[in-house]
Amino acid sequence: MVSFPSAPDDLFKAYAYEQLATIGKALCAPARLVILNVLCQGERTVEVLAGHAGLSVANASQHLQVLRRANLVESERQGNKIIYRVADRNVVGFFTSMKELAAERMSSLQVAFSEISAAPSRLAAVGREELLSLVEAGIAVVIDVRPSEEYRSGHIAGTVSIPLDRLSDHLSWLPADKEIVALCRGSYCILADKAVDILRELGLSARRAIDGVVEWELSGLPVERETGQRLEASVEGDHGGQ
Amino acid sequence: MVSFPSAPDDLFKAYAYEQLATIGKALCAPARLVILNVLCQGERTVEVLAGHAGLSVANASQHLQVLRRANLVESERQGNKIIYRVADRNVVGFFTSMKELAAERMSSLQVAFSEISAAPSRLAAVGREELLSLVEAGIAVVIDVRPSEEYRSGHIAGTVSIPLDRLSDHLSWLPADKEIVALCRGSYCILADKAVDILRELGLSARRAIDGVVEWELSGLPVERETGQRLEASVEGDHGGQ
DNA sequence: ACCATATTCAACTGGTCACTTGAATACTTG
DNA sequence: CAAGTATTCAAGTGACCAGTTGAATATGGT
Question: Looking at the structure, do residues B82 and B24 belong to the same domain, yes or no?
């Protein structure tokens, strides 16, 4: 560069950090984070995503384009609809580490949350190592309380699908002598908390898992997918979770 | 939760994503990213950080407080000055993966950049595996072209400190029969590019490393630190790098 | 105690972003 | 080819954010 004026250097620096900031900007609106979190679990249509985030379709579409400009998600036309998905497996890992980083801040909230909740489900949450050992020892059953569509589009092998809103239908055959561990979408999702509260009120031994299906998948557990099955519009069954 | 109104659920969801967005907001201003990148290499004073980012001290202070509110950095008073550092080793890892995620977007820029640059240093950059094998085979020398203060505060074992602005003083003893690999702060830093251009103009075989010292450190290489040595105010020697 | 230095606070301004609304585009189905 | 559905575009509004300036706070040295 010797004979190089310094201007292009600053230009490069400015441009580089501007590009980097594009990713940051994509992650600074809560609505986009909700969308991204849903997309980390599988591909979805615009309408479904708008429902999850509580946005108008037009608004959700704009948020999605911000995410796409940041190269975090990509879209593809499939028949009548346009489906969005994360652009890369790395995005899932990156977003997960962001959530883990925020978990520290969240801990204060979780304490406050457990105080208004009937059962301190969050504080007794089950970590990965413990859950694995519980399952291996055969003294725990893991139930996946997400809506059944999500279970179908990808779940950890060995878990049983019991959507939260159908939990009462399956109470009869749940073992009273084993511990029940509820699995949902992760620490930002409260489906498992609700399930645990219900089960405990019935006298069963239940706890929630700290991590969600996506985190387990990232840590290398085998995942089963029902291929060909696609998530169509149906936000029903999602009782404020995530 | 059974007997729980759904309002607190939405409150939790909203609060959780708001907290997560705090981190995103901290990363959406280029100036803050520059600051964070410098902090990933070691603790600094406000004045130094302001110099790196090209901001007024008051402005840099405000940016630092945004970063602190997001729990990404922490501050400590040391005598007359206040030094900032990353709050957690995980922050370095997280920020690194963010940069890697952006690298894809950057590739287009790197091509454009190499076109105006005398030598296509970026395109021939050396990755980790290759560099390790080159060093093991004894056919490459690795020079650390960052300012000497940064080298002192932490560098990879086996590398030699040759600050870019003193490169001409060390030309005599650089081996002509080996390949010279220049190491700097990473792909967002152009110090190594400049060094390579100088060396090539002199007929030496030189390439830059893709990654910076921080990335190498994260991947497990032994790091040497001169303890007790602290980075005092001195932006001099930083020729537009980062 | 006083001054110099380092950092933060407070008030202000221009620009950018999120959300709304109404229209336009693109594809599928009859 | 027409009608319907899904998504995107375009314009407008209110809120928030980055940067500036000048003053306030806090520490160390004399």
Answer: yes
Q: Are A167 and A214 contained in the same domain?
A: yes
For residues A57 and A136, state if they share a domain.
no
Which candidate in A2, A9, A20 is best for mutational testing of the B interface (most B CBs within 10 A)?
A20
Nucleotide nearest to B55 (CA to C1'): D19
Residue B96 lies in a domain: no
pLDDT of residue B215: 86
A144: Cα separation from own chain's centroid: 13
In chain B, how many domains are there?
2
Nucleotide nearest to A46 (CA to C1'): D7
Helical segments of A82-190, H only: 89-116, 128-136, 148-152
pLDDT confidence of B10, banded at 50, 70, 90? low
- Regions of chain A where pLDDT drops below 50: 1-7, 119, 228-242
Among the residue ranges A101-105, A151-155, B96-100, B143-147, the one predicted with the least confidence is: A101-105
Structure tokens at A14: 């400015």
> Is B242–A90 a contact, with Cβ atoms under 8 angstroms apart?
no
Query: Does residue A164 contact residue A239 with C-beta atoms inside 8 Å?
Result: yes
Sequential DSSP letters for A131-157: HHHHHHTT-EEEEE-S-HHHHHT-EET
Test B94 with A97 for CB contact under 8 angstroms.
yes
Per-residue pLDDT tens for A62-112?
A: 999 999 999 999 999 988 899 999 998 889 989 999 998 888 766 665 655
Comparing CB atoms, the residue among B24, B109, B198 nearest residue A24 is B24
Q: A109 vs B16: CB contact, 8 Å cut-off?
A: yes
Res B161: pLDDT: 92
* Residue A155 forms part of a structural domain: yes
Q: What is the per-residue pLDDT for A176?
A: 83
**A19 and A63 together in one domain:** yes
The reply to whether A94 falls in a domain is no
Q: Is the pLDDT of residue B124 over 80?
A: no
Residue A130 beta carbon within 7 A of nucleic strand D: no
Q: Which domain holds residue A27?
A: 7-87
Question: Any residues with CB less than 8 A from the CB of A137 and at least 6 apart, and which?
Answer: none
Is A138 part of any domain?
Answer: yes
Q: What is each CA distance from B154 to A207, B148, B180, in whole angstroms? A: 45, 10, 21
Same domain, B57 and B166: no
Residues A61, A31 share a domain: yes
Of A1, A94, A193, the CB nearest to B117: A1
Strand D closer than 7 A to residue B29 Cβ = yes
Nearest 5°: phi and psi at B221? -70, 150
Looking at residue A21, what is its pLDDT? 94
Which is more confidently placed, A173 or B40? B40
Q: Span B192-210, mean pLDDT?
A: 88
